[in-house]
Amino acid sequence: MSSFMSFNRTMWAKLRNAVPMTLSESHVKELQGVNENLTVKETVEIYLPLSRLLNLYVVARQSRDSILQNFLGNNKSVAPFIVGIAGSVAVGKSTTARILRALLSRWENHPKVELVTTDGFLYPQKILNERCLMKRKGFPESYDMRRLIQFIYDIKACKPNIEVPVYSHVAYDITSEIKVVNRPDILIIEGLNVLQTSTELTHRVSIADFLDFSLYVDADTKIIEKWYVERFLKFRYGAFTEPGSYFSHYTQLSEKLAVKKAKSIWKSINGVNLEKNILPSKDKAQLILKKGNNHTVEEVLLRR
């Protein structure tokens, strides 16, 4: 990690530089994940300094683009600033994405912030079944990379009203719903594969090629596995009970069997994907949020 500067919580919190807290406690609670305990303190000490850093990057990019457009005599729209967020299943990257979207949208020079997850670009369940990939969901080959890269390309080209497929974690499949993204100031794209490089010859272009800033949410693998199991147990009384849930059969398991099943899924699927595909992409990030056992960020690593 010699290419990164390391900050403990106290050091990082000081970089907030008096940026005001614009979210209420209730709003913060709404943004947290199923198995997390996001606090106002965490938001103030970790995410406000991060939003300030990102704001500075956005302002610099906007200024540079304005100079270029002025030089060329153009009056074109400035391309959205794209932030990529990567990390393992159950590590809390979705919460990070939501809290950053809320904070960044409160800066007056970039109020329009959109959030898209790469889950929407997974192949539909029908195709995954045809290709025997259901147990490889989340692995690189389970994504429609052509469509995902085209979406990001269209975003950078400032195309209006881009349609994005929507994924349901309840149905465990792509839905008929469509999300429309219309020229945001900032696009946050979050997913397992955000920093991965495709090894397929047809996918020479990667998501990372389009990112203006990238961050990786990190924790010890054993800790993430524990969080995954805890989240699985909570889903038994939540998402798994919803009408149409793909995993409704898990609600019938005893807690002991549910723990056993969750550990089995982790060992055969999510843990393998983390070690083989996700973790190797960590060092490509410009910033790493290192979490401890209680879900709080203990260290921030910023690329020099």
Keywords for this structure?
seven-stranded mixed beta sheet, 304 residues, alpha/beta, 8 helices, 9 strands, two-stranded antiparallel sheet
String of helices and strands: EHHHEHEHHEEEEHHEE
Distance between the terminal alpha carbons, to the nearest Å? 10 Å
Major beta sheet, strand line-up: 1-9-8-7-2-6-3
**Radius of gyration over all CA atoms, rounded:** 20 Å
| Low-pLDDT stretches | none
Helix content: 25-40%
- The counted number of beta strands is 9
Coarse morphology? globular
Total helix count? 8
Strand content: 15-25%
Q: If you average the pLDDT, what whole number results?
A: 92
Let me know the largest β-sheet.
Answer: 7 strands, mixed
Which structural category fits the helices and strands? alpha/beta
